[in-house]
Design a protein that fits this description.
Layout (H helix, E strand, L loop, with lengths): L5 E7 L2 H11 L10 H13 L8 H17 L1 H11 L6 E7 L2 E5 L4 E5 L5 E4 L3 E6 L2 E6 L5 H13 L1
Length: 159
């Protein structure tokens, strides 16, 4: 009978951590497809401007199109800004991994995943992406030592 595995490490939810999380977990978007909603809002807005509608409804759609376009273009910046303004930013968190699952907790963050909840584990260039249904969570390789990485690889192979 093998001994149960347990690993624990502390890390800081700082800017470099959030940047790595975004870069490794959000697939890059290219072409015009990410801007489809932007183009739809702009098309509807410019079509409505000449019509005699009250309250400038056409201009509202044009403004929505511009905001949507900016949110696509500056997605990473917007996401980082929101994370850095949260209560959890720049605070210490504890990562725990054992035979039952993964726990990440701090004063403001409390995530717990069992291995049965995790559908797939994908190794990235800097860590691991855990896929659970439609949700995804990123685990930075900076948090893991060699034994923990080996354990994670073993779990990834069994998924």
């Amino acid at each position: 009978m093998s001994t149960p595995f347990h690993y624990q490490a502390d890390f800081v939810l700082d800017r470099s951590h959030y940047e790595e999380c975004f870069d490794e977990s959000v697939p890059p978007k290219s072409g015009l497809k990410p801007y489809a909603k932007t183009l739809a809002f702009l098309f509807v807005g410019f079509a409505l401007i000449p019509m005699p509608l009250p309250y400038g409804i056409g201009y509202l759609f044009v403004a929505l199109g511009l905001v949507e376009g900016l949110s696509v273009r500056f997605q990473r910046t917007w996401w980082l800004w929101r994370q850095l303004l949260s209560k959890a930013a720049n605070n210490s968190a504890t990562f725990e991994m054992d035979d039952e699952g993964i726990k990440i907790h701090s004063n403001f963050v409390n995530h717990q995943f069992t291995w049965q909840q995790i559908d797939a584990i994908e190794a990235t260039s800097k860590g691991y992406l855990l896929k659970m249904g439609k949700g995804r969570t990123y685990i930075s390789g900076r948090v893991l030592d060699d034994a923990a990485k080996t354990f994670m690889e073993h779990k990834a192979a069994t998924k």
